[in-house]
Amino acid sequence: MTKHFINIEDLSISDLDQVIDKAIELKHQHISGKLNKSLENKTLAMIFDKPSTRTRVSFEAGMTQLGGHSLFLSENDIQIGRGEPLADSAIVISSMVDAVMLRVSSHEDINVFANNSNVPVINALSDESHPCQLLADMMTYKEIYGSIKGKNVAWIGDGNNMCQTYMQSAKVFGFMLNIASPQGYLPSEAFIEKYRKHINICGTVEEACSGADLVVTDVWSGMGQEDEKHKRELDFEGFQVNNKLMSLANKDAPFMHCLPAHRGEEVSAEVIDGERSLVWQEAENRLHVQKSLLLFLLNK
Ligand code: CP
Ligand code: NVA
To answer: Which of 76, 115, 249, 295 is the right S-S partner for 212, CB 3.0 to 4.6 Å?
Structure first.
């Protein structure tokens, strides 16, 4: 059966551990200059209907490093942009390539594509989740601190796609997620219900951060929410991760952010550019962990 990676829970904890451990090995190999051409002659199609820096560059460079090739397909440049059904596009594209990565607005579109694809489909961000980013975050935590099982993670801000992927990850990786969101910006009811045992909805940012082993946030307005920017700036007042808030977390607790970030909004410059910030390592690890994911999904 074709393996897809649409939600972090599509992989068991042992598969996730295997992907992360292999990513750490691939990173060392890459740094030492050792070549790995396991995906020679393989092609990854990358379909984007939203902008990207990290996701595009990491998948593209990763395929090159593994001896394969990637195709950047902006939705507006292919027939999907002119209304060709996704299902038809999936049948055609998957008959020609070895894996497909999609960044789309609607999570359901990824399911439709996967249901009609003969090759692995990877969710590279939807309105619901961003599992590739969580692979990189979990790899980054493991590299420095070891297992995240039993730890407390603070989520400060929007209950968005990143927050919801942290909720799913709390269940699979076994940590507790303490969420502080402004009124009206909690994750979806369905997610809160489903992951109830693995999350705490906190009344204040201070409560969420107290005793945290990791503090995470994301932008106040995500891609496609530009029209709400002004309203959100008002609604998110007080939801900034700054040194005062970080001082409530455990002494060694790091800060993570998927990037791009807005200094002075969801995070202060002193935190994101400070010594507890892991944002650059997190971003770099997208490369290594997605190479590992591709090897896993393609049984290499
Ligand atoms: N974190 C992340 O997915 O970044 P991009 O939007 O630049 O791909
Ligand atoms: N929550 C952000 C993540 C960007 C990587 C967005 O969806 O725009």
So the answer is: 249
107 is catalytic: no
CB of 222 shorter than 6 A to ligand 2: yes
Each domain of the chain, given as residue ranges in start order, spans: 8-130+285-297, 133-282
Is 132 a known active-site residue?
Answer: no
Q: Whose CA is nearest to atom 1 of ligand 2?
A: 222
**Region 8-130+285-297: CATH code:** 3.40.50.1370
Three-state SS annotation for the chain: CCCCECCHHHCCHHHHHHHHHHHHHHHHHHHHCCCCCCCCCCEEEEEECCCCCHHHHHHHHHHHHCCCEEEEEEHHHCHHHHCCCHHHHHHHHHCCCCEEEEECCCHHHHHHHHHCCCCCEEECCCCCCCHHHHHHHHHHHHHHHCCCCCCEEEEECCCCHHHHHHHHHHHHHCCEEEEECCCCCCCCHHHHHHCHHHEEECCCHHHHHCCCCEEEECCCCCCCCHHHHHHHHHHCCCCCECHHHHCCCCCCCCEEECCCCCECCCECHHHHCCCCECHHHHHHHHHHHHHHHHHHHCCC
What fold characterizes domain 133-282?
A: Rossmann fold (3.40.50)
Nearest residue (by CA) to ligand 1, atom 3, is 55
In the chain, % of residues over pLDDT 90: 99
Q: Kindly report whether the global pTM for this prediction surpasses the value 0.85.
A: yes
Fold agreement between 8-130+285-297 and 133-282: yes
Quick check: is 258 catalytic? Answer: yes
Predicted confidence (pLDDT) per residue in 272-287, tens digit: 999 999 999 999 999 9
Confidence tier at 214 by pLDDT (50, 70, 90) = very high
209, 240, 258, 290: which is the annotated catalytic residue?
258
